[in-house]
Write a structure and sequence with these properties.
The structure is a homodimer. Helices cover about 35% and strands about 30% of the residues of chain A. A four-stranded antiparallel β-sheet of chain A has the order 3-4-2-5. Chain A is of the alpha+beta class. Chain A has five helices and five strands. The first copy, chain A, is elongated, with a radius of gyration of 20 Å. Chains A, B: InterPro entries: ArsR-like_HTH, AsnC-type_HTH_dom, Dimeric_a/b-barrel, Tscrpt_reg_AsnC-like, Tscrpt_reg_AsnC/Lrp_C, Tscrpt_reg_HTH_AsnC-type_CS, WH-like_DNA-bd_sf, WH_DNA-bd_sf. Chains A, B: This is Leucine-responsive regulatory protein. Chains A, B: One of its GO terms (molecular function) is sequence-specific DNA binding.
DNA sequence: TCCATTTTGGTAAAATCTACCAAAATTGAG
DNA sequence: CTCAATTTTGGTAGATTTTACCAAAATGGA
């Protein structure tokens, strides 16, 4: 489905999401029209889900972030669906993964300051029904925050 | 430093990193030239670190991912710097955070399959000097993988 | 208030995007 | 292998967008 030439395109568009079609065509060794059509196909088929500006967190005023380990009391669809639905619409929750291991879920949360984080816990997280346990791991340092798949 | 109008621009460029300057100017209510200059300033000052295409992981052939909890034996700069340097150049490691809590670091790793993950552990992770403990939490489901700061 | 500085909106040339075309490459059946 | 059907390619041109410049408006410090 995704061929080698597509991977080159994807790799390049991950590195520079605003590369012009001509730059792209050059770096992957295609004509502009062929390249443009493949990009379009990747977008329409949903392989490319979108494009985003990557904004420097501290510069934008988000000083605090944490990784939360969350466990649920029970794993009925009712509880799980409710949890997922709530997490999806909270924009402070950048990431959420269901994982093996001690916790059911790993969440990454980004907020402006500790006050906002405390509020997030009290007014959102602790009010989700069926939460058994929440452990906060404050992020001391962001070593790496990548989005590019390792083609 | 980052004003309200800049936040609007950043929010929009996070949602659509390829929005044309005209679209942007419309949605934030500015003239195209003023808008364009602000975007340029945000890029040059480093508030916008770049742009990236967001690629659907499974469609691109990366079936397996995990969150690793890593602890070091000692926390001398020598060991820490070595760990950080190695992690930085491994493209399978999409994210790495130094955190409070039981583990020193949280890593998110993305690979094509379990074989590749096993190889990643054996040939990379377990060979980093000064590693005390590595716990793998396999990602069963990606509930949410966002990059947009919650302006 | 007044002057200096910054930010703004408008404009036009250069660059880019995007939809078309015919030609080339690929595929599959006989 | 051959040939026709289908897909993919490169080239082109009009429409759109980017980008550098200008004078006017807004800002803010003394």
């Amino acid at each position: 489905m995704v061929e080698e030439q597509d991977e080159k395109i994807l790799a390049e568009l991950q590195k520079d999401g605003r590369a012009t079609n001509q730059q792209l065509a050059d770096t992957v060794g295609m004509s502009t029209s062929a390249c443009w059509r493949r990009v379009r196909a990747l977008e329409e088929s949903g392989v490319i889900e979108g494009y985003s500006a990557l904004v420097k967190r501290e510069a934008a005023g988000f000083a605090t972030s944490a990784i939360l380990h969350v466990s649920l009391e029970r794993h009925d669809t009712t509880f799980v669906d409710e949890f997922v639905a709530r997490v999806m619409q909270r924009r402070e929750v950048l990431e959420c993964f269901a994982t093996t291991g001690d916790a059911d879920y790993h969440l990454r949360v980004v907020v402006r300051d500790m006050d906002a984080y405390n509020k997030f816990l009290d007014e959102f997280m602790f009010r989700i029904p069926g939460i058994r346990h929440v452990r906060t791991n404050v992020i001391l340092k962001e070593i790496k925050t990548g989005v590019a798949l390792p083609f």
